[in-house]
Amino acid sequence: MRTRTRDPQTLGGAGTLDRMARILAARNIDPAAVAALVDEPESFSPLDALLTAMPPRYQGAVADHPQVLAWAKDVAQQAVAPSLGARRQVTTGPSLLMAGVVGAGKTHQAYGAVRQLVQTGVGVRWRATTAADLYAYLRPRPGVDSERELADVSRCPLLIIDDLGAAKASEWVEEVTYRLINRRYNHMLPTLITTNLAIKDLRAYLGDRVTSRLAQMTTRVEFEPVDRRRHRPAA
């Protein structure tokens, strides 16, 4: 006889336990005997899950910028539980636009902010991409529903867009960026954006419609003009 195996799952709720007890009783199985044969499941914390989804370079990222920490606190406070007793989830919240020179630590702070959120105990479904990779992902190509892909990115509860303004400008880039930002603006979805461009350069790159929405939906964070990748403290 072929034995079917399943991955261990965590049981939750009195209703589930009651149903299991009735099933075992109907089969004349002692629940205590079953419990003795089952090892304690290995815990897998939300932080562990977060780290598996992060690039190795940023798995140890810690947010320490005051405005970034204030943003994480604000988003956590607005998290809501989908049902009674459920873990609170990020649904809506403010956004950040982190601006500064290459290597100023903006990406590090963005990943650190997500980590900070998870450590406060809220659940968050998130996604991170560079702007260049985002445009490549959304560009129409055979066999791919680009509109559905754009909708998926637009609806993500928390989105990191790294290096906005680094990709080559075009009418298509401006249009796609507008559609994405406008949807997130309308639904008040928290978005972490990093850029090396000044606001006037962003306006020339993305147009007034995008920059107007960014100005209203984000808090602008200016980073010191120091390339931390090149700068090393004196010994």
Tell me the overall shape.
globular
Low-confidence stretches: 1-13, 33-44
What is the number of helical segments per DSSP (H or I, 4+ residues)? 10
Q: How many DSSP E strands?
A: 5
**How helical, in percent, are the residues?**
40-55%
Structure at a glance:
The chain has ten helices and five strands, in the order ααααβαβααβαβααβ. It has 235 residues and is an alpha/beta fold.
How would you describe the overall organization of this protein?
This protein is α/β, with parallel strands linked by helices. It has 10 helices and 5 strands; from the N terminus they run ααααβαβααβαβααβ. It has helices at residues 14-26, 31-37, 46-53, 66-78, 106-119, 131-138, 146-155, 171-187, 199-206, 208-217, and strands at residues 95-99, 126-130, 158-164, 191-195, 218-222. A 5-stranded parallel sheet has the order 2-3-4-1-5. Helix 8 (171-187) links the parallel strand 3 and strand 4. The radius of gyration is 23 Å and the shape is globular. Residues 1-13 and 33-44 have low confidence and may be disordered.
